[in-house]
């Protein structure tokens, strides 16, 4: 048998990623789906002498194609025609998960059900018989506890047997709709592929299907209108009636498979009593975020010292062994000093990623969204906005792309506009540098304050934009809380490494190129070549192009207490926020080793002006990649607006901090 393509699908939070990783053994690659920036993962595994190519479809609740993820999943199944679909079903929430399975069965594609989280179902007092479920659905059902690797080999056996068998399941029949489906299918037969599926989608008033039917079988469209008149329903009412019929069938199938239900208080229930408490929920959220930063800074200390020593040694070696003066300065004063001053913070960033990956995998982040929804609603943000905003803590670019799940256009634009205020990982080196230099012993608290300042400003600006620009109220937010999970350290470490690797990749490209540019502007000036003396003498550096740029803009920032070197850091930070640290390292003639001490002793900053500088970096113009993402998602006009309001807001907040500090 040649290579077989299969797809894996499931609701969010059912353990689909764990099953995918268990099948592929982490042999996968990540790209984007054609035409969109939604992540696409593919992998391979061999079983029974057959090579399987497995595609991980986005986590969705249905295939109604009302969001980008749903369209991707549905179009892949219909157009790419995989040989088989693995539907990962959460056994502890069987009825809800069966809705998606019924829609897959409507497509007539061979399906194997991976009945995951059997341990969670047992903990909830549910006794499920996978064999009865398989008999009722007429498809293979394999029980799993994917986090422990239980059932994975049996799942591979079922996939192999089903692919060899090639048997296609019968589409489900919905009481009250069987006659309608038959009437439409007869008119569509021979004119479209899978007439039963097209008939069901027409009854759901699917826009794409309506156009296909209008072109190929207009008589079926007339029959659909006749059905509406007979039922006395609008298109929306008939759609809801069909959805209700699916839920009733899902409930009936779940009832057949569940042999015993025992209501019992689970650990998840007990945890939710605290994490979702009306008054305790938000303080717990704040405390957990603070603990994540405290963990990152305290644990990373020895690793930071080790990286610090490494780059100090590299700088000395480069200075001693490279004979050419200009090349030696480029390597030691430019590349090692600039890139090294950023990379020294990689341990802190990696440990922070680790902490947040653990919170995500545990199931807590969904609770954080639920808790914060009450607050967000008051500020005019949609509940679905929280997930893109939380993603902004990693990187604003994919976070902005994630707003595509928000159906209302006003809610979506509003979420995109305030997303750059969420403090991405690129700003962390700046926070770490200044917090360590001016707030020793309180680094975790100061950095946490920056993150919460970003959240507070995002809420305030959302409230202002909602009332001044968009008007109206945000729509309601409905979400399903996943069960709490035991830590899957393989997945957590994998996510941590992927995010850290992206940070390192940026250091090897954008940051590298920028520090070389800064070095060139530092060793050359209006009068010509200055040489490495620029990094040893303030007088020599003052004759460079970089000083010329800084002094031209310095008057604008003098009310904030910053000199031209600080201004130059902000200018080059437009390319990437990490570059701010590299720039300051070059301009002060030091690498990562001792930059904090040099800043603290230089007199360029006070604790107040340093805190204001951190706030400015948080708020002002997002990086070039983020501006491009905003333009691509909601247009150039809104991208220009985001840049303009960011500059004004950053200056105003920094000025307030400086003025407040002077009063105190």
UniProtKB/TrEMBL annotation:
For the keyword GTP-binding, the answer is yes
Q: Which UniProt keywords apply?
A: Cell inner membrane, Cell membrane, GTP-binding, Ion transport, Iron, Iron transport, Magnesium, Membrane, Metal-binding, Nucleotide-binding, Transmembrane, Transmembrane helix, Transport
Cellular component GO terms, alphabetical: plasma membrane
**Does the keyword Magnesium feature in the UniProt annotation?**
yes
Annotated membrane topology is: Multi-pass membrane protein
Please give the chief subcellular localization of this protein.
membrane
GO molecular function term, any single one: GTP binding
> Which amino acid positions bind Mg(2+) 1, per UniProt?
22
Q: Which residues bind GTP 2?
A: 35-39
| FeoB-type G domain residues | 3-165
Q: Which residues bind GTP 4?
A: 116-119
Q: Which residues bind Mg(2+) 2?
A: 21, 24-25
**Which SUPFAM superfamilies does this chain map to?**
P-loop containing nucleoside triphosphate hydrolases
Q: Where does GTP 5 bind?
A: 145-147
TM ranges = 274-293, 330-359, 379-401, 446-465, 503-525, 569-590, 610-630, 642-663
Residues bound to GTP 1 are 10-17
Cited CDD domains: FeoB (cd01879)
Positions with a binding annotation for GTP 3: 56-59
Localization per record: Cell inner membrane
Q: Specify the protein name.
A: Ferrous iron transport protein B
